[in-house]
Amino acid sequence: MSDRSQDEIFSLRREEMVKDQIEARGVKDPLALAAMRKVPRHVFVPEKLWSQAYDDHPLPIGFDQTISQPYIVAFMTEQLALKGGEKVLEVGAGSGYQAAVLAEIADEVYTIEIICGLADTAKARLEKLGYKNISVSCGDGYKGWPEAAPFDGIIVTAAPEQVPQPLIDQLKPGGRMVIPVGGFNQELVLIKKTADGKIERQSVLPVRFVPMTGESQNHK
């Protein structure tokens, strides 16, 4: 199989993924859908799993971590309501896939990963793919990225039991954060900070994410 025909096959699989798994479940944001069609999800998982890269489930990426189900990536991206031009923080870089999707829409993406082995791999992968608007750091995402704050949007891909106050503080007025919250039973929560700094919180979906580690575990 030539590289070109393999690329064409993966492109067709992405089209099917978006149509059957994402649009069919109600995701409508054209920027999120376009990003999901474009980013090659297979290169963010081990090569032995490429055949499953566009299936409707999470996949292991090492260090007991996973790449999220495609629908969840698209849904969470849509919840941020990005229009282009924003600065976004991601907590939990993992493979780098969600950061790549965000970087197709936002101007600047900052992504933190507490497992340095994953952070290093994600950074190298994103650089190889040509993303120049993503900054990757190894660190405790509970604390956010204060040097780059405030953010128009924050997306969290590991579940704390309580929403970290530093992340709320680093959200710009008018900004939105989407975060899984809870222990065994988790819910995806959308947090909006109004123009005058008030916090509005809305539960949007039952989910299952890996728990947030580090400082988060001191705030149960």
Q: What features would you describe in this structure?
A:
The structure is a single chain. The protein has one domain: Rossmann fold (3-Layer(aba) Sandwich), CATH 3.40.50. It is globular, with a radius of gyration of 16 Å. It has 220 residues and is an alpha/beta fold. It has six helices and nine strands, in the order H-H-E-E-H-E-H-E-H-E-E-H-E-E-E. The longest helix has 20 residues, at 3-22. 29% of the residues lie in helices and 26% in strands. Helix 1 (3-22) crosses helix 3 (70-79). The strands form two sheets. It has a seven-stranded mixed sheet. Strands 1-2 form a two-stranded antiparallel ribbon. Strand 3 (87-91), helix 4 and strand 4 form a beta-alpha-beta unit. It has helices at 3-22, 30-38, 70-79, 97-103, 116-128, 165-169, and strands at residues 59-62, 65-67, 87-91, 108-113, 134-138, 151-156, 171-182, 186-193, 199-207.
Concise synopsis of the structure shown:
With 220 residues, this protein is an alpha/beta fold. It has helices spanning 3-22, 30-38, 70-79, 97-103, 116-128, 165-169, and strands spanning 59-62, 65-67, 87-91, 108-113, 134-138, 151-156, 171-182, 186-193, 199-207. The strands form 2 sheets. A 7-stranded mixed β-sheet has the order 5-4-3-6-7-8-9. A two-stranded antiparallel ribbon has the order 1-2.
From the structure above, extract its key features.
220 residues; 6 helices; two-stranded antiparallel ribbon; 26% strand; alpha/beta; 9 strands; Rossmann fold
Shape: globular
CATH class: Alpha Beta
Q: Could you give the order of strands across the largest sheet?
A: 5-4-3-6-7-8-9
Multimerization status = single chain
The biggest sheet, with number of strands, parallel, antiparallel or mixed sense and barrel status, is:
7 strands, mixed
CA gyration radius, whole angstroms: 16 Å
Nearest-integer average pLDDT: 94
CATH architecture designation: 3-Layer(aba) Sandwich
Span between N and C termini?
Answer: 51 Å
The CATH topology label is: Rossmann fold
The residue ranges in which pLDDT falls below 50 over 5 or more consecutive positions are: none
